[in-house]
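Case study 2.
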Amino acid sequence: ELRRAGPDAAAGLIETIESEAARLGRYIANLLGMARIEAGAIRLRAEPVDLIDAVAAAARDLRESLAGRRVRIDVPPDLPLVSADPELLHHCLINLLDNAARYSPPGSAIAIEGCRDQQGVRLAVLDEGNGIPGEGGAAIFSRFARIAGSDRKGGAGLGLAIVGGFAGAMGIGVSAANRPDRQGAVFSLDFPAALLVREPAEGAAD
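Prediction:
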């Protein structure tokens, strides 16, 4: 097929193959992740994580799925580091971004926002899709839960369940709600104060 195709067609075919391979890889990773959750076999390797770097890495790895979306990252540089397992957190962010891309129309905006409050640090992914039907909330993160319109999408409904399972193992809260400002949903990871890594005071003795 590639030998008969012209250069442009061949390049497009290769891009499609790579995209589908990446999608299949994420699906397999989610199946393995769910098996680990159900078997209670999650082994944490918590270390200080910079959320700016974590978000950038997830967006970079998911760039093909996010193509055609207007992605905005607004994570303040002065947010404290958080204690988390880098691999599990990466899976959480990948699935939240993939969910946002899957259920929002081409050309729409996807935002990743970070903020700090009295409870800790919140990292939120906002989309401009159809929003969450009914009460949504914690039920969205249960296994095989599907968002309205998901019957027209691929996948097995594992992504958000992976987020809930991995985040819970790390002590990170999860929440989902409809956006108050416009149509769309917001999915949040809530890092409690106990998971914030406090930098040593400036001038402190070694």
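The chain has one domain: 7-197.
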